[in-house]
Amino acid sequence: MDWPNHVDVWREWRRALSGARMHHGWILAGKSGLGKRDFAMTAARELVGEEGVAQPTGAHPDILTLTHLPKDDKEEKKRDEGKAYQVKRNIAVGQIRDMQRRLNTRPTLGARRAIIIDPADDMEPSASNALLKSLEEPPQGTFFILIAHRPSRLLPTIRSRCRLLRFPTLSNEDLSRLIDQHGGTAGAQARDAAIDAAEGSFGAAMRFLEQDMGPLADLIGRLLREGDAAFQGRGELSRAIGPRADRGRIQAVLELAQALVAENARNSSSPMERGRLIEVHSQLVTLAGQAPTYNFDNGLLAMEIGTLLSSVSAGSEHANG
């Protein structure tokens, strides 16, 4: 996939790669859905490839990717059968230690090995601490590429040992073109709503289209405008999200809520209302960071989202009264 927001990032990476000494740790930072995983895989191949050494077109023995494992044995079987499967909430310390044991051997095809952690901001605390030891004393020829949607969640000591590559968001025109190129078949109204809510993230735009988020966007907008004194809106929101919503749908709902709150803040003419919207946006960001980590009941999570959204109207009425 050709990512138009990667031009400057590639320029910086290749300038470093051609230098005398390539830094051993990199953080690919930016919101989810900007192509950081695609960049990491291609960059890792450039890193480990050597002139005159044939490189495999499939899985590479000198590129190790750590990501969320299947949730349990049942989900692991689904993965092995090529089916959709649920994953664990965190990257565990055992995965880091297994990777470190592999670092005791030499790379297979050349002198370099790349470790991709995706997303590194989903490592459990003990995994982060274990990784830090490898970043402090990296084995010769080993390079770490950490994908981070929320780099502030990484340990400061990890951030200080890595170079940062920041990925810019996409323009609405770029989003529209990418949706056309990669199978977006929704109507013009749904596309426009998804692009506006995605705030520059292709991944978010596609999730909004796949999840049919139009009705949820209407509910979120109503909660922001009218509040929910009778709790009816929060019940509708919970039903619209669904009692068995998977992680992808929950993530899409939280992204949509953040985007619509941010849009309202930009358009608000009231400093007091804008301040309340900014506060609610911050709380939604915190909730989005906690949701993958804690075992939230979907109904309670929907109520929490609805309460935050409806508080904007309630707070504005109280302030104006």
Automatic annotation (TrEMBL):
This protein's GO CC annotations: DNA polymerase III complex
| InterPro entries on file | DNA_Rep/Repair_Clamp_Loader
The biological process GO terms on file are: DNA-templated DNA replication
- Tell me which domain of life the UniProt entry assigns to the organism this sequence originates from: Bacteria
Question: Under what name is this protein listed?
Answer: DNA polymerase III subunit delta
